[in-house]
Design a protein that fits this description.
Elements (H helix, E strand, L loop, with lengths): L1 H6 L6 H24 L1 H6 L16 H13 L17 E4 L16 H9 L6 H8 L14 H8 L9 H9 L5 H4 L6 E4 L2 H30 L1 H13 L2
Antiparallel strand pairs: 1-2
Amino acid sequence: MLTNIHSFKLPITCLTATIYLENLSQRVNILSLYQKIFPEQWLESSMTIDKHSHQESAYLDREIEFIRLVNEHLFPIEYIDDIEFSPDRSNIPISPQKPEWWYEDFEDLEYSEKFLLSLMGQGYNLGEWELHFGFTPEYITPAEDIYPDSLTKLCRRYKSPLQHLVTAIRIIDYSTENIWLDVTCETSDWLEWTYENVMFLAHKWLEAVLMMENSNALAHLIETSLTTRKTIVKLWNQAS
């Protein structure tokens, strides 16, 4: 009973009034997004619009319901299992999809990551290639002398996952121009809860998933095929 009474308490100072109006605006915004983006689920929901089960959370239960739908159908929400305890509702968190490789022990990285990083001059030197990758290239062009457009054209000749070499390199290099794949712990990003931002992130997430799938297909080929590894070095050198 006291909780219900407290919810109707009116602000009596300028500061509390400002906070109240900001919270109300954010609440209306998120619930409006729920209605617009998931109209069927909104109509089918049995959750009352003012239910607030988690007093430590900034979110009403129906807002949490919406955010879980976003996480399930559109794009991942960081710390989704802790959303009931979030003190802030103003922004959409955009989190890294994997640990940054430079913080990891190089030997613990995936085989394909070690191969591509070595190709880019950030891994094993040429004297170690035979041991780790089964052959020793005569020469590897420095990354700064590679023309990405040329490498892309060369890779497009292949119907195998080799056509996705540039994508795999850009994922490792955090240079895909996709917000989900380029964000790091140092460059963590947030966007406001707007319809345009939600649709943008949903589109970019679909794009990111496809890029990761293509990169994973190439990673498997790199790990299992010596011919593929040799071909990649050849393509890399030709793109200089």
